Amino acid sequence: LLNKFQNLPPSPFPVLPIIGHLYLFKNPLHRCLSKLSDRYGPVLFLQFGSRPVLLVSSSSAAEECLTKNDIVFANRPHLLAGKHLGNNYTNLTYASYGDHWRNLRRIATLEILSLHRVQMLSHIRADEVRSLIRRLLSSDRNQVVEMKPLFLELMLNNMLRMVADKRYYGESVEDVEEAKKVHKIVTDGNLLGGTSNIGDFLPLPKWIFGGGYENSLIELQKRRVSFMQSLIDERRKILTSDGSSISKEKTKCMIDVLLSLQESDPEYYTDEIIRGLMQTLITSGTDSSAGTMEWAMSLLLANPEVIKKAQNELDHCVGNDRLVNESDLPKLPYLNCIIKETTRLYPAGPLIPHESSEECTVAGFRIPRGTILLINLWAIQQDPKLWDEPTRFKPERFKESEGIMRDGFKFMPFGSGRRGCPSENLAMRMLGLTLASLIQCFEWELGNEKMDMIEKLGISLCKANSLQAKCQPRPIMSDVLSRI
Ligand code: HEM
Fold first, then answer.
1. CA–centroid distance, residue 215 to ligand 1 (Å)
2. Which portions of the chain are predicted below pLDDT 70?
3. Cα(268)–Cα(109) distance, rounded to whole angstroms?
4. Which residue's alpha carbon is nearest to atom 23 within ligand 1?
5. Residue nearest atom 27 in ligand 1 by C-alpha distance
6. d(CA 65, CA 341)
């Protein structure tokens, strides 16, 4: 009644004192919130403890938020993780909309993730995929391979080589102790960054809730800062060893580019800014891409006819006398449909978080300033009103669509608007090349009798239990495989 009077969107009843609607929530949150929307409507007003939340689960309301109200909703919610891991909300992912965020976003898109630079570093991705293939070739034919760590290490090597020209996993890693340290920094980051912290929503003293969590964040951030700084120092030493200035021609990785910018504008491009950008790319880039790879392979193993079709496409368009490469990807529309269908069912960011900086209206309702917006992308991408057999894995449904990873506001795994993912191009290359290579080179089967598709929502939407698979080199590719 009160909501109606204030023209707020409907709310499930009752709203309890202090905890609000928190009593309704279970993991995984995107599924639970989707059920609430089915029951109470696609535009809901919730109380996460003391914080007001607008939950949007229809494509038309999402469109309104990300077009007409895109600037109003271009902030991120301030949560404890962003305070510590996001360097007091100053990192690209966590920063509020404004000049600072715009600058970081410009540097990321123009200097680091531009088409040109991503293209220039394609040899890194090709190298790392070859290294993964060698690891799979060296495993015993009947051995069950756990895929999750392989994908995580692949994506980490990709990102760390792009960022710092260093690899930490797999073959030819010199310092094993250092590699272990890096692994721990990343996995702790995924764990803590993805933990929901009740203390963010309840106005209770820290010593009751969240004290231990906050201490872990602070301790992790110390380790991260010291690791990132050591990489910067190392690159600075290499680049300036001949006493000359850092010209653009000398730059091999992202830190180099940022250090060359630091030479011309030391006040803005401080080491702190460089560390923040490094950290953002490594944390946003690895878990999301590795998780999506694992979902894609799981769906393929559960649907062997789809692998066959993709193999036919590869044999036809690329052949069997060389490995697939990134420039083949536009010629592989069925592979593209597989990636789309994977990210439809398992979007890495199933609940996209924004926050309103002023009052606005959505679906005719009044949305107060400071409201957290959660767009339930997972629910929208499986909305039975928009999708035929929404829960089925059917890559063919994207047959008529073009290469782009968007279909209005009903399919947008990389988000949309100002805060949309700046790295779609890089992610699609990493996913496309890895998946294509695994399909081209191996026959796959499940490693255990039955596969589960249980979801776990951490920093991104991951498979709770690692995919177990068996693979055999395809005889038709034996010549190529003997040379890599
Ligand atoms: C399968 C892979 C990926 C998916 C599905 C994905 C998806 C997303 C989504 C849904 C968002 C939020 C959009 C919004 O708030 O409206 C996002 C933001 C972001 N992504 Fe990605 N992403 C992927 C890979 C990557 C990679 C590889 C990088 C970097 C190397 C990256 C960097 C970022 C950053 C920095 C943001 C925050 C941008 C901002 O707040 O301005 N992502 N991504």
1. 27
2. 1-2, 171-174, 205-210
3. 17
4. 288
5. 285
6. 24
How big is the CA angle at 200 (ends 361 and 28), to the nearest 5 degrees?
80
Supply the pLDDT for residue 208.
63
Distance 216 CA to ligand 1 centre (A): 25
Query: Which tens digits make up the pLDDT trace of 123-174?
Result: 999 999 999 999 999 987 789 999 999 999 999 999 999 999 988 877 666 6
Per-residue model confidence (pLDDT) at position 206: 64
Q: Which residues does a 6 A CB cutoff place in the pocket of ligand 1?
A: 92-93, 105, 280-281, 284-285, 288-289, 292, 343, 347-349, 352, 413-415, 417, 419-423, 426-427
Domain residue ranges in the chain: 2-482
Residue 443: CB atoms within 10 Å? 15
- Distance (angstroms) between ligand 1 centre and the Cα of 49 equals 27
**Probe residue for ligand 1, chosen from 99, 414, 426, 461 as the CB with the greatest number of ligand atoms within 8 Å:** 414
- Tell the residue nearest (CA) to atom 1 of ligand 1: 289
Q: What is the pLDDT of residue 217?
A: 92
- Which atom of ligand 1 is the closest one to the Cα of 113? 30
Check whether 421 is labelled as a binding-site residue.
yes
| pTM listed for this prediction | 0.96
Pick the CATH number of 2-482 from 1.10.760.10, 1.10.3210.10, 1.10.630.10, 3.30.1510.10: 1.10.630.10
In angstroms, what is the span from residue 459 Cα to ligand 1's centroid? 11
Alpha-carbon span 246 to 256, nearest angstrom: 8
Q: Are 274 and 87 contacting, i.e. CB atoms less than 8 angstroms apart?
A: no
- Ligand 1 midpoint to CA 249 (Å): 29
Task: Give the pLDDT confidence of 165-182 residue by residue, as tens digits.
Answer: 988 877 666 677 888 888
